[in-house]
Amino acid sequence: MWGGRKLSSSGSRFLGAHRSPFRGTQADCPRLTTSAAYSKNQLSWTLQIKPSVFSEYRSMCFKSYSMTFACLNRMKSYSLPWTRPYSTSRTTVDSSEVKTFLALAHRWWDEQGVYAPLHSMNDLRVPFIRDNLLKTVADHQPGKPLSGMKILDVGCGGGLLTEPLGRLGASVIGIDPVDENIKTAQHHKSFDPVLDKRIEYRACSLEKIVEETAETFDAVVASEVVEHVIDLEMFIQCCCQVLKPGGSLFITTINKTQLSYALGIVFSEQIAGIVPKGTHTWEKFVSPEKLESILESNGLSVQTVAGMLYNPFSGYWHWSKNTSLNYAAHAVKSSIQEHPAPAEFALKEETEEVRIETSTNSGVHEELKK
Amino acid sequence: MRYRAFRRMQVWDACSEALIMFDKDNLDDMGCIVENNVIMHALTKQLEAVSDRVTVLYKSKAVSYTWPYPFSMADSSPWVHITLGDGSILQTKLLIGADGHNSGVRQAAGIQNVSWNYDQSAVVATLHLSEATENNVAWQRFLPSGPIALLPLSDTLSSLVWSTSHEHAAELVSMDEEKFVDAVNSAFWSDANHTDFIDSAGSMLQYAVAFLKPTKISARQLPPSVARVDAKSRILFPLGLGHAAEYVRPRLALIGDAAHRVHPLAGQGANMGFGDISSLLHHLRTAAFNGKDLGSMSHLTAYETDRQRHNTALLAATDLLKRLYSTSAAPLVLLRTWGLQATNAVSPLKEQIMAFASK
Fold first, then answer.
1. Do A328 and A346 touch, CB atoms closer than 8 A?
2. What pTM value is reported for the model?
3. Residue A325 and residue B255: Cα distance in Å, rounded?
4. Which of A54, B4, B109, B254 is the most exposed, having the fewest neighbouring CB atoms within 10 Å of its CB?
5. CB proximity under 8 Å: A 170-189 to B
6. Secondary structure element (H or E) that encloses residue B55, with its range
7. Are A168 and B77 inside 8 Å of each other by CB?
8. Alpha carbons within 13 A on the beta-carbon side of B40
9. Is A223 annotated among the ligand-binding residues?
10. How far, in whole angstroms, is CA B90 from its chain's centroid?
C-alpha cells in the first residue's frame, strides 16, 4: 500500500520511497521531518499529512541515488516510529488524525470553520496578485481583469485561492498532492459552469508538471506553501521553470523570527488553537531575506515584499510594514533566458539555518530540521 | 412629469406655535419629491438599456425557495433555487429580496421580523393648488391624530400624505371632494388645538432664543391653499413598523421594505431603501473585483452591519416622534414644543439631521 499509491488522500502518511510510479521520488525520505510539514494551502489542515508530500517538491532533475541511501539511513536514525519504510504496520497512522483530516478535507469551504483565516486571507492575496498582474498589461476587460492569463496555483488545497482567480478571468491550473483536497476542489467548482471551464485541478506534484508545462504560465502562486517544503531551492527552481519569461511568482508565507515562534506557534497552535497543533514547524519558516536571496539566485527579481497581519478577534487580515510574522512576496522571472544557477552554487548566506548537504554530486540540499 | 425639487421644509405643531424650518444656507435644493410613476418609468428605461445583461420576467411569481446548506455537502447544490409560478426553476448565487414589507423571501427564509401596527392609516392624494406658486416648500404639520404633509410636485400640484386614525382615514377617502378639500385646508390652518398655557410657554422660549440668536427667527408661514383633489387619486393604506432581525443569510440579502418598514412622517422609507441599494452595490462591487463568490457571507454581513446601524437609528427616532406627537397631553406637548424650538435654534443640529436623512 505504500507502493504505487499516490500521495495523499485519505490523509494517511505515506512513506515514501515506495511510490514507484513517481519518478524522482527517491527522495522521499526527507519528508520525515517531523511534524506537519506539508505542502498545501495551509495553516493547519495538515497534521495528517505528515511525511509524504514534500518529496514532490523535489525537482526530478536532481535526483540522486546516493541521496536516497543517505535518506534512508537518516530515516532510520530518526526514531519516529512511523517513519520506518517498508513497515507494513499501519499502526503508526493515528486513526484519529486520519479522521480529523478526512473531516477537514470537507471543511475547506466552510467559511467560518477551520479554514476561516485562509478564506479571509483572500481579501489580501487576491488583490495582491490581481493588481501586480494588471501592471503587466496595457488594459483589461472590466469584468475579467485577468482574462487571457494562465496561472498555476501550487498547493491549492480545496481551491480557496484558485476559484477567485478563475472568477477574475484567468485560466488556472490548481495542483495539490492530496487527492482528497483535489476531490473537494473539483466538487466545489462543478456547480459553477463558468469556473468549471476556467479551472483545472490535478492531484500531482510540481515536478510532474514541470516537464510538460515548462514556460507556459504567466503567474505561479505558492500561497502558504513554502514553509512546508523541504527543499526550498528546488521548489523555487521548479516554479521558475514553469514560468514564462517575465512571468510572476507570488508567495505568501511565514517569517522565521522569535515573534513568529511566539505568536505563530505558541499562541496560535498551543494556546489559542487558531491553527491545529503541529501544523507548522518553526525551523521551516522562511525569512524574507532568505527567500529573496533564493529567488534572486534563480533568476527571479523580487518586486515587492509586504507584511501581513492577522487579527484573530476580527478574523481579518491587514497589510503591514512589519514582515516579522506573515508576508507576501512578488518576484518576476527575468525576460532574458537565464538558466537557474545550478544547485551547487546556491547561496547559503543564511547560516542560521541548519542545512545538511548531501553528496556533492547532487547538490540537492535538504533541510532536515532537528 | 411630476417631480419637484424643494428648497425648504417647514414642520410645525398643531398644539403650539413651535415650528422647525429646514433649509440650506444659500437656498439650494434640499431634496426632490418624485412621483412613483416617474421613478418606475425611469427604471424601466434603464432596464431596457441593459437588456443584454438583465432579463426581467414580468407577470411572474416566485412560489418557493430552496436554500443551500451552510457548507458544501455531498450532492446538494450550493446555490439558491427559486421555483416560479409556471414551474420553471432558477438558480442563483445571490438572491436579493426586495418584495416589500410582507416579504415572501423573508418569510421563506425564516428570518425573524420585529413588527407592530400603528393605529393609523395614511391617505394619499394629488391636490390642485388654488393658485400657481413657486411651490418649492415641503410642509408638514403634526396634528394630534397624526401628521399631515403637503409635498410639491409642480407649480400647481402637490401630493398629500395624511396619517390619521383608521376611521378618520376611511372617512376621508370616501367623503366627497369638496369636504375633503375643506378638511385638508383646515388641518393646515386651524389653530383649534392651541392652548394658552402652551402658547405662553412656547413664546417664553422663543424670546430666549431670540435673545441669544437674534438673527434666527422663523416666522410661521402657511402652506398654499388647496382647491381641488384629483379624482380617484385618494388611496389609503395601513401603517406599521417593521424591522428584520437579519438582513442577510448565506446567498440572501434583503433590501428596502422587506428589511424595514417605517412611518411616513419623516419621508424616509424609500430613502432607506435607496441607501440599502447603494451600500449593497458598493460591497458587491468590491467583492466581485476580488473574485469573491457573490453570495459569500463575508461581504453580506458588512452590508448588514452598515445598514442596520443607520436604519435602526432612523426607525427608532421615527417611532419616537410618532408617539410623541400622537398626543395632546399638556406635559408632552410642552416637551415637544420646547424641543422643537430648541432644535430649530441650533443650526448645526439641523444640518446633521438633514445630512443623516440624505444618506
1. no
2. 0.76
3. 40
4. B109
5. 184, 187-188
6. none
7. no
8. 3
9. yes
10. 32
Query: Is the pLDDT at B108 greater than 90, yes or no?
Result: yes
Determine whether the interchain pair B71/A122 forms a contact, defined as Cβ–Cβ distance below 8 Å.
no
Q: How much is the pLDDT for A210?
A: 85
Residues in B closer than 8 angstroms to A160, CB to CB, are none
Parallel/antiparallel/unpaired status of strands B252-254 and B95-97: parallel
Q: Write out pLDDT tens, residues A241-251.
A: 999 999 999 99
Smallest Cα–Cα separation from B182: which of B138, B136, B226, B232?
B226
Q: What is the dihedral angle through the alpha carbons of A26, A30, A34, A39, rounded to the nearest 10 degrees?
A: -80
Give the side-chain half-sphere CA count within 13 A for B81: 11
pLDDT of residue B164: 92
Strands A217-223 and A243-254: parallel
- Report the Cα–Cα distance between both ends of chain A, in Å, rounded: 29
Please, which residues have CB within 8 angstroms of residue B112's CB and are 6 or more apart in sequence? B244, B245, B246
The SS3 call for residue B38 is helix
Cβ–Cβ gap B297/A119 under 8 Å: no
Helix (H) or strand (E) holding B64: strand B62-66
* Confidence band, pLDDT 50/70/90 cuts, at residue A129: very high
B98 vs B209, more confident? B98
Which residues lie across from B12 on neighbouring strands?
A: B19, B141
A85 close contact with B: CB closer than 8 A? no
A191 neighbourhood in chain B, CB within 8 Å: 77-79
Sequence-separated (6 or more) residues with CB below 8 Å from residue A39? A53, A54, A56, A57, A155, A176, A177, A225, A228, A229
Q: For A335-349, B144-158, B250-264, which range has the lowest pLDDT when averaged over its residues?
A: A335-349
User: How far apart are the C-alpha atoms of A172 and A206, rounded to whole Å?
Assistant: 14
B248's grid cell: 442577510
Average pLDDT over residues B67-85: 77
Check pLDDT > 60 for residue A80: no
What would the grid cell of residue B327 be? 398626543
The CATH architecture assigned to A95-333 reads: 3-Layer(aba) Sandwich (3.40)
CB A151 within 8 A of CB A217: yes
pLDDT at A81 over 80: no
Inter-chain touch B293–A163, beta carbons under 8 Å = yes
What is the C-alpha separation between B176 and A96, in angstroms, rounded? Answer: 82
Q: Residue B345 pLDDT > 60, yes or no?
A: yes
8 Å CB contact of B72 and A164 = no
pLDDT at A36 exceeding the cut of 50: no
Asked if pLDDT for residue B263 goes beyond 90, the answer is yes
Residue A19, annotated as binding a ligand? no
